[in-house]
Amino acid sequence: MIKHVVCFKLKDNSEVVCEKTKDVLLSMKTNVKYVKDIEVGIDFLHSPRSYDIHLTVLLENKEALDLYQDDPYHADVVKQYMNGVSETSITVDYEM
Predict the structure, then answer these.
(1) Which structural domains are found in the chain, ordered by start?
(2) Counting CB atoms within 10 angstroms of each CB, which of 17, 18, 80, 82 has the fewest?
(3) Residues near 38 by Cβ (< 8 Å), separated by ≥ 6?
(4) Is residue 21 very low, low, confident or very high in pLDDT (cuts 50, 70, 90)?
């Protein structure tokens, strides 16, 4: 199994934008067939080093990770939205 973890710092980290972003990310669970499980968290500390949104996606293997990256819903809907609201992001992918 592969865990794909991304943290996003948003341009606007208001509650409304964070909740909308969470909903967009969670929508991958039913729209991207390679996603085995997904978790999204919203930061509540808002410290200078905090990121605003945490995403963890569980995938079957490295091939599924590659397919996930190119999935039309992920690329055309989710990435487009995230590119519009994100200031920066960091990621890590690892085998479990």
Answers:
(1) 2-95 (3.30.70.100)
(2) 80
(3) 25, 26, 28, 29, 55, 56, 57, 58
(4) very high
